[in-house]
């Protein structure tokens, strides 16, 4: 069989992602903080895009040269792009003396004495010191030889975020090629460092080390945390009285001291966890009995096409080379598409929020217990968009409502059928369960079965396992851990 080249015609359907479509999709799924960063990055990279400082409006408005071609379309449904770049620009006189560099060449920082309250260079360290750095600083002041320091650093490096040791003594011995006595000695040194209870194997040992630091190693509290911690977790006071031979009042005093003065996770305050701040993308405000939707455009720059580059593109000068003209045309077109994608994003978010407000009106009026079942398809059909577009709009975005700040995904919940009534959203049932537990008798808390029966009395039929699943999702402890002493 001979090998040969042939030409064949083949018909196939293929989705082509244009750069403009990718840009629109990317902007659509960014949250408020990420969008600000994307705008600044685009302003730095594209010289044909600039900030319009002449606009003082708090809301974004499309530049006049682009208003004729903008459409509320989904990413993938490209609108027409006009080639008209008529724009007027007026820049006032700038007093450059205000920006003059009057630096004195004879000035020296060495001659200046810093103020007493001047910040230290250590105040500008980018990384926050954590538990490991704190332990290494303390170990540097301990009289350890090279072998012992190696073991100590290995132990400190194997502490989890709670301050507990995650490796066994045998693993430490195998790593350091040492003997048990030396490893135990180094471990005791680490356990004597701050914070109290550090480098313990479990919660029981950590609490006991903290009591030893207080010279309470022989107290009733030490006996409870060392030998009877499981009974303390379930608050089984009768068994504690039998096991320790102490009276109930003594047991309660010891437990109160343990819960108020000791910490079960000594390393947690040193965990390097950053706080993620939420900036709402949409505000829902009630004015004169009606709800208004306001997009969060605070500190968002007003963009426009650079008049200088537009003039260069429209001019017929021969000094402008072909490559330069092609470069300018590409940047102007990219800037135009970016502005259109930005305003299309804002208007799409507005339409989605308007639809959510229509479907979940009772929630905005009465709270989470009146949340209705809602899926992405309902909103997509209501505003004539695709479900994927709704998913991108509602991902990682938040809205400020009279009921609080919620993620847009919060308003979409599965339906729980109810006999003789409208279906309820799963989030609505979770809210009811949370409210029941908050109002329960702390000395006789509600079990999952009791909560299921109470819901059944309100015509909400869900199984005990479903109640337990919702309770775990809300991070609520089971009944045996919620029971308090009488």
Describe this structure in words.
- With 486 residues, the protein is an alpha+beta fold.
- Among the domains are: 131-270, Arc Repressor Mutant, subunit A (Orthogonal Bundle), CATH 1.10.10.1330; 417-482, Arc Repressor Mutant, subunit A (Orthogonal Bundle).
- It has helices at residues 19-28, 32-45, 64-67, 131-139, 146-157, 169-176, 180-191, 203-213, 220-227, 229-233, 237-244, 248-261, 307-314, 322-359, 361-366, 376-383, 387-394, 426-438, 448-457, 464-473, 479-482, and strands at 49-51, 282-287, 290-295, 303-305, 398-401, 404-407, 415-416, 424-425.
- The strands form three sheets. The chain has a four-stranded mixed sheet, covered by helices on one side.
- A hairpin with a 2-residue loop joins β5 and β6 (404-407).
- The N and C termini lie far apart (93 Å).
- Residues 68-112 have low confidence and may be disordered.
């Amino acid at each position: 069989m001979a090998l040969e080249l042939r030409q064949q015609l083949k018909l196939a359907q293929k989705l082509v992602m244009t750069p403009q479509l990718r840009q629109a999709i990317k902007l659509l799924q960014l949250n408020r903080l990420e969008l600000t960063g994307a705008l600044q990055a685009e302003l730095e990279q594209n010289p044909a895009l600039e900030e319009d400082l002449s606009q003082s409006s708090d809301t974004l408005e499309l530049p006049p040269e682009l208003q004729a071609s903008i459409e509320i379309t989904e990413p993938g449904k490209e609108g027409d792009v006009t080639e008209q770049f008529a724009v007027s620009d007026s820049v006032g006189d700038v007093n450059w003396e205000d920006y003059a560099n009057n630096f004195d060449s004879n000035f020296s920082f060495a001659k200046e004495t810093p103020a007493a309250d001047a910040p230290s260079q250590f105040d500008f360290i980018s990384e926050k010191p954590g538990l490991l750095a704190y332990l290494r600083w303390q170990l540097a002041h301990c009289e350890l030889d090279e072998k012992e320091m190696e073991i100590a650093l290995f132990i400190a490096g194997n502490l989890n975020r709670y301050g507990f040791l995650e490796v066994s003594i045998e693993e430490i011995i195998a790593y350091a090629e040492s003997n048990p006595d030396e490893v135990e000695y180094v471990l005791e040194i680490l356990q004597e460092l701050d914070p109290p209870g550090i480098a313990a194997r479990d919660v029981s040992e950590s609490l006991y080390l903290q009591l030893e630091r207080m010279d309470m190693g022989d107290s009733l509290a030490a006996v409870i945390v060392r030998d009877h911690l499981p009974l303390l977790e379930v608050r089984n006071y009768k068994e504690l009285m039998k096991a320790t031979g102490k009276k109930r009042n003594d047991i309660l005093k010891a437990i109160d001291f343990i819960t108020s003065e000791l910490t079960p996770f000594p390393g947690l305050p040193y965990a390097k966890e950053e706080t993620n701040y939420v900036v709402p993308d949409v505000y829902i405000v009630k004015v004169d009995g009606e709800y208004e939707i306001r997009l969060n455009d605070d500190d968002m720059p007003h963009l426009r096409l650079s008049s200088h580059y537009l003039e260069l593109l429209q001019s017929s000068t021969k000094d402008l080379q072909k490559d330069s003209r092609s470069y300018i045309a590409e940047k102007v077109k990219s800037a135009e598409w970016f502005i259109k994608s930005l305003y299309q994003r804002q208007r799409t978010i507005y339409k989605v929020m308007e639809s959510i407000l229509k479907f979940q009106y009772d929630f905005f009026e009465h709270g989470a217990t009146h949340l209705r079942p809602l899926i992405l398809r309902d909103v997509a059909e209501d505003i004539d968009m695709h479900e994927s577009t709704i998913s991108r709009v509602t991902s990682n975005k938040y809205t400020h409502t009279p009921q609080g700040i919620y993620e847009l995904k919060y308003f979409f919940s599965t339906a729980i059928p109810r006999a003789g009534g409208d279906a309820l959203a799963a989030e609505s049932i979770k809210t009811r369960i949370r409210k029941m537990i908050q109002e329960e008798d702390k000395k006789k808390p509600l079990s999952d079965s009791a909560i299921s029966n109470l819901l059944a009395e309100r015509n909400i039929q869900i199984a005990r396992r479903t109640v337990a699943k919702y309770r775990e999702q809300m991070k609520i402890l089971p009944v045996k851990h919620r029971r308090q002493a009488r």
